[in-house]
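2024-03-11 09:14:02 INFO worker-7 job=invfold-0412 stage=load source=structure_tokens
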């Protein structure tokens, strides 16, 4: 099972580096988790303009979700 990391970024600067990550079945599950994380941050307006960035266990960025723009 691959590990995915969920960093928080403001523009090109990483504000929070997730060094632990989370083991998930696939990219789709990682996107669902990133959506959940972004929704949690969105409860604080101070995170507007930031994004949750999904990185796989090889260091490849596979997607991002803007905080405050989740699909839920």
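2024-03-11 09:14:09 INFO worker-7 stage=emit residues=72
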């Amino acid at each position: 099972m691959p590990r995915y990391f969920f960093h928080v970024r403001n523009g090109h600067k990483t504000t929070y580096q997730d060094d632990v990550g989370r083991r998930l079945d696939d990219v789709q599950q990682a996107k669902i988790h990133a959506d959940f994380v972004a929704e949690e941050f969105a409860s604080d307006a101070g995170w507007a303009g930031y994004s949750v960035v999904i990185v796989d266990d090889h260091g490849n960025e596979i997607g991002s979700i803007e905080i405050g723009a989740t699909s839920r």
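2024-03-11 09:14:09 INFO worker-7 stage=report msg="The two ends are 26 Å apart (CA to CA)."
2024-03-11 09:14:10 INFO worker-7 job finished
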